[in-house]
């Protein structure tokens, strides 16, 4: 049974949608990004103890984030969500703090380029560039985990497939939270869960995919890693909620990855909504999910 705090989680998502879609004007992309970062900061603030540092990863701006006493060797490269149009490292500092503490790791938040100004494959290019920079900086791929939520989860898979195809050393593990991996929008849950999901709709997905792809084939594996060759990818944890429109993206991804020989852990959480683990500041189920991520990361990076 879902916690009483789950009601608040749904309300927060509904409020977020409302502020992103005002009826009196059409915000610019920069205005929408500012709204998104403000919503993240207000609802999931970073603790004062969090250490952050801006860095340049071979031309890709990033933000180091770590809690006191955490390992300087284990690293999570994190790709934020936002449908490739929204989000930034600043808005994810609170979640980075939770991840850093649970995983005993530094977190590298990647500020990849966003659409519509920078369509596919700009985000993918930035993700692979940042990973290669990190690989040179740490020299221990087994102590790296590539992670992301929503579009960032899809971007994590696309980056790993591209890195494997190029012959790069792969990380020790991957973590995907509510990943968006199919831009053809063929998952049945998009319609089946339309009344359950307060955040994601088919209309929104179509709009966001169009802004990112700008006429490119939505079945392109580098944009829709559900259709990529997943052979050789590292052990992968996938977390998704039963109330998500993108539920089938996760379940189909898990099946395809297992069929490709990937070790997959799939957690389908009852009554949870899109990207619920970022709500660990107040949601018990989110705290449990972050702890699960912590155990998974530590088990695969020793």
Care to describe what's here?
- This protein is of the alpha/beta class and 302 residues long.
- The protein has one domain (5-299): Rossmann fold, CATH 3.40.50.
- 40% of the residues lie in helices and 16% in strands.
- The chain has nine helices and eight strands.
- It has helices at 5-20, 29-43, 93-103, 122-138, 151-166, 189-192, 202-213, 247-259, 284-299; strands spanning 51-57, 60-66, 75-79, 106-110, 144-149, 173-177, 236-241, 264-269.
- Strands 1-2-4-3-5-6-7-8 form an eight-stranded mixed sheet, with helices on both faces.
- Strand 3, helix 3 and strand 4 form a beta-alpha-beta unit.
- Helix 1 packs antiparallel against helix 2 (29-43), helix 3 (93-103) crosses helix 9 (284-299) and helix 4 (122-138) crosses helix 5 (151-166).
- The longest helix has 17 residues, at 122-138.
- The radius of gyration is 17 Å and the shape is globular.
- The protein starts with a helix and ends with a helix.
- The model has no long low-confidence stretch (mean pLDDT 96).
């Amino acid at each position: 049974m879902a916690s009483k705090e789950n009601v608040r989680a749904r309300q927060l998502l509904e409020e977020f949608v409302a502020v992103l879609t005002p009826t009196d004007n059409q915000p610019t992309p920069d205005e929408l990004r500012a709204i998104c970062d403000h919503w993240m900061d207000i609802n999931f603030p970073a603790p004062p103890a969090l250490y952050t540092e801006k860095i340049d990863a071979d031309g890709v701006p990033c933000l180091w984030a770590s809690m006191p006493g955490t390992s300087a060797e284990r690293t999570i490269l994190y790709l934020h969500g936002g449908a490739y149009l929204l989000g930034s490292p600043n808005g994810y500092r609170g979640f980075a703090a939770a991840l850093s503490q649970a995983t005993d790791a530094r977190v590298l938040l990647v500020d990849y380029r966003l659409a519509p100004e920078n369509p596919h494959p700009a985000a993918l290019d930035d993700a692979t560039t940042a990973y290669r920079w990190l690989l040179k900086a740490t020299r221990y791929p087994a102590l790296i985990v590539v992670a992301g939520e929503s579009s960032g989860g899809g971007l994590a898979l696309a980056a790993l497939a591209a890195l494997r195809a190029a012959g790069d050393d792969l990380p020790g593990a991957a973590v995907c939270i509510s990943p968006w991996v199919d831009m053809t929008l063929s998952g049945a849950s998009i319609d089946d869960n339309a009344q359950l999901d307060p955040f994601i709709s088919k209309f929104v997905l179509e709009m966001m995919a169009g802004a990112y792809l700008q006429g490119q084939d939505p079945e392109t594996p580098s944009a829709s890693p559900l259709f990529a060759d997943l052979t050789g990818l590292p052990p992968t944890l996938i977390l998704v909620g039963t109330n998500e429109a993108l539920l089938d993206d996760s379940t189909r991804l898990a099946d395809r990855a297992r069929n490709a020989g990937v070790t997959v852990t799939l957690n389908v959480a009852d009554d949870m909504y899109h990207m619920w683990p970022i709500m660990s500041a107040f949601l018990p189920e989110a705290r449990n999910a972050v702890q699960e991520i912590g155990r998974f990361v530590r088990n695969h990076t020793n």
